[in-house]
Amino acid sequence: MGYMPADDLQHLVTRIEARTDRILVASGAMFLIWQVGYFTVIHTPRAAFRTVDLVATAGLLAWAGALLMLVATGGGAFRRREVREILDDELARAQRDRAYQNAFWALMLVAFAGYAATTFVEVPARLLAHVSLSAGVLAAVSTLAYLRRR
Amino acid sequence: VGPGELGNRLRELRTQRGLSQADLAVRARVSRKTINTVENRVFVPSTILALRLARALDTTVEQLFYLTDEDSQ
Questions:
Q1: What's the helix, strand, coil split of chain B in %, to 5?
Q2: Do B22 and A10 touch (CB under 8 A)?
Q3: How far apart are CA B72 and CA B67, in angstroms?
Q4: Taking the model in full, what pTM does it have?
Q5: pLDDT exceeding 90 applies to what percent of chain A?
Q6: Alpha-carbon dihedral sign for residues A47, A48, A51, A54
Q7: Strand runs labelled E in chain B
Q8: How many Å from the N-terminal Cα to the C-terminal Cα in chain B?
Q9: Is residue B34's pLDDT more than 80?
């Protein structure tokens, strides 16, 4: 691909930013709503693991991975270098750092609560992993979505 | 913005030069949103970005940025 005029570049960056903002809010909200469904169904014991469980797990991991990728790249992962550089400017990096900080504290909170809970009840590793992953993803996505709308 | 915080004359100097936020963003090689957040004092830029903004507006960092307690003296 050839040279892109600076004005066109800014226009493209603005469109990508707006689209990323919408995806962060919509997909983050759907991810949160999906958690309600996850915790309201009775999960089949591991011994009777069904194909549908495998599909649900793969879907969750893919969704979480896509959201984390969006947080990490700002929606410009497969764009040309000059677009990526502007999408990853100083403000974007500062916002992403803050999102990572909040994700870290969300994970620590889950780890503390999970560790304390194991003193009194049996906490399945799968449940702890699910809550950790979801808390980390949701903390990062919601922080970034909030910061980008200011 | 409280005393001792960073204020700026970015909007004033930008409009004096007839530039839009997008124009300045092109010159400073950042996004328009970054210019907007600096102007509105939501985001405090690094020294490097401050120097780039000053150069893009053909001014000095001292002309562009100030501490708010200095402004009131």
A1: 60, 10, 35
A2: yes
A3: 9
A4: 0.86
A5: 67
A6: negative
A7: 6-8, 65-67
A8: 16
A9: yes
Q: Which residues of A64-78 are buried (b: 16+ CB within 10 A; e: fewer)?
A: beebbebbebbbbee
What pLDDT does A44 receive?
56
Give residue A63's identity as a one-letter amino acid code. W
Which single residue is written with the structure tokens 């990062």? A140
**DSSP string covering A81-138, please?**
HHHHHHHTSHHHHHHHHHHHHHHHHHHHHHHHHHHHHTTTS---HHHHHHHHHHHHHH
Residues of A in contact with B42 (CB under 8 A): 150
Which residue's entry shows tokens 């990572």?
Answer: A100
Q: In this structure, are residues B20 and A71 in contact, taking their beta carbons and an 8 Å threshold? A: no
Residue type for position A105: W
Q: Looking at this predicted complex, what is its ipTM?
A: 0.86
Query: Mean pLDDT of all residues in chain A?
Result: 89
**Nearest Cα residue in chain A from B48:** A90
Interface membership of A18 toward B (CB under 8 Å): no
Average pLDDT in the B52-58 region? Answer: 97
